[in-house]
Structures are given as structure tokens and as C-alpha cells.
Amino acid sequence: MSEGYEHRPVMLDEIVELFRPVPPGLIVDATVGGGGHARALLEALPQHRLLGLDRDEEALVAAHVTLAGFGNRVTLRRARFDRLKAMVNEGGEQNVTAVLFDVGVSSPQVDHADRGFSYSQDAPLDMRMDRSQSLTAADVVNTYPAARLTQVLHDYGDERFAGRIANAIVATRPLNSTSELVDVIRDAIPAPARRRGGHPAKRTFQALRIEVNNELDVLGPALDQAIDVLVPGGRCAVLAYHSGEDRIVKDRFREAETGGCVCPPGLPCVCGATPKVRLLRRGARKPSAAETASNPRAESARLRAVEKLDAVDAA
């Protein structure tokens, strides 16, 4: 990893084993980050090539260093993952056999104070994964009406005090730094609630990050694209860390598994739906106790995976 961008890949062994059976071809790492998962996959699957995508320029610089030893087996592109299909088509690729998503914020983004993701370090209110985009956390905090801000905190942060926090933010504007925001959040939450459930600003910061980066809106379309580009026998795996993300993954995979069937459960399908994938496991897989002990940030991870069906299996 490049200096200052060291990220511990979550559920690394599980990801490698999920992709080990796929036929030779192209692996798309839609959130390549510093290249940790990508490096392990390229080492374990020597007949495969890799296309790595990321919207964060600093992550791509790190990935270039991490993956330099694999030469022309690796192509890296700066792109948001809902452009996955366009990036694959641009390369003229017809044999995509695996797609990986590791969604959410990475450890280096949190740990670099100037990025504004952390409630534990003072920094400007930024939170952009792609620093070429215009919308920042400061824009959300200082311009959204109280009702819209409340909805963001409730929907994306599961924040039970969303209304109180939003009203406190509006009353204290302008806010320019993460520490100023943390103080407002802490004062808005009742004292008994502040003493349990972790840092009082955790859910608000999560919600703002998701809003700034439009994370949930682009995830569903990206998953659809991933399934479309896979060849039969290819696999798609997703690591999610937030209930909203995991819900989208679960729903999109269920839709692909049933082909959008609208027939009553338990009865034969007569609506003509054609399944696209099979689930590799019912329910989400979680990190081991040993992994969460050594890497607490892995604790909320949920892994789901599907395998693309061919026409015969689908029928």
C-alpha cells in the first residue's frame, strides 16, 4: 500500500474462496480502494485479469502501487461504480467472471482528518469520496431545510433524535468544522442517550456521508449492471456495512433470483419470469469473531453473493 493509505480488507479469505470456482476471465473490483482485495484475488487466481474502479483519486494512487507487480493483468479507472457496465464495455470485455463491491467508507478515508469523515478529528466538513464533485457535508449541514435534514438523518443514519439534531443544526448555522458539528449533535441528544450506543455523532456522520456521496441511490443500479455483465457461472459478491445498503443488496439479489416473479409464494411460476442468478447462501455471512477482534471496523460487515445462471439453469 502507498504511504498513508493502508486499508485492512474485510473478510478477505471468504471473498477469495467465493471467487475461486469462477472460470478464467475478468474480475471487476468496483470499489478497488487501496487494492487489498484485488491483490489477494490476483494472487489466488493467476489466470484472471482485474479491472479496478474507484471514485477516490487517492485510493487509485495507492492501488497503482499495491498492484504494480501484476503488470498488464490490471487496469485501473477513476469511476463511480454505477458506471461499471460502461467501463467494461469501454474495454471491449466479453468475459466478466467476478464482480466485487466493498461499499461504504474506507479506513484511510476515515483516518485522514482532512477528508472530514471522522467525528474524532477536527477538520472541514467535506466527506466527499470524489473531491472533484461540488456537494460537501458543509453544503448539506448549512443549506438543507430542517425537514430535509431530518429525513436524511433518519433514513440514512437510523437516528432516533433526527428532528432534534436537525433543528439544533439549523439554529446554530453556519457550521464549518467537524468538531463544531459534533458539539451541536452532542448537546441535542438527551444525556441518558449519550451514555449508551457509542459516539453520539456516529449516526449523523454516517447519514451525511451517504447523502454527500449519493451512496444508496447508485448501489441498486450498479448491482443490476454487475449481474448483466457476468457470464454464466460468474459471481457477484457484496460487502455492506449499513442496514440500508444491505437491504438494497438483499432486494436486488432476490429480484434477480426470481426474475421478478409476481406469482404467489409456494405456487409454480406462470408469469414467465426468468431467474438470472442463484443465491450462494441464504442470508448474509458475517465476519468471524477473530476478525472482528483484530479489526473492530469489520464488525458491521455483511457479505452476500450470487452466481449467474445460464439459459438452461434459468429455465
Can you describe this structure?
The structure is a single chain. 43% of the residues lie in helices and 14% in strands. It is an alpha/beta fold and 315 residues long. It folds into two domains: 12-106 and 221-314, Vaccinia Virus protein VP39 (Rossmann fold), CATH 3.40.50; 109-213, Putative methyltransferase TM0872, insert domain (DNA polymerase, domain 1, Orthogonal Bundle), CATH 1.10.150.170. Strand 2 (49-54), helix 3 and strand 3 (74-78) form a beta-alpha-beta unit. Helix 7 (146-157) packs across helix 8 and helix 8 (162-172) crosses helix 9. The mean pLDDT is 92.
Mean pLDDT: 92
Structural class: alpha/beta
If helices are DSSP runs of H or I spanning 4 or more residues, what is the number of helices?
Answer: 15
Tell me the major beta sheet: 7 strands, mixed
| Proportion in β-strands | 5-15%
What string, H for helix and E for strand, traces the elements in order?
HEHEHEHEHHHHHHHHEHEHEH
* Terminus-to-terminus distance: 45 Å
Side-by-side strand order of the widest sheet: 3-2-1-4-5-7-6
Can you identify the CATH class of the largest domain?
Alpha Beta
- DSSP E strands, number: 7
Q: What is the CATH homologous superfamily assignment of the largest domain?
A: Vaccinia Virus protein VP39
- Please indicate the count of domains: 2
Q: How large is the radius of gyration? A: 21 Å
Q: In CATH terms, what is the fold-level topology of the largest domain?
A: Rossmann fold
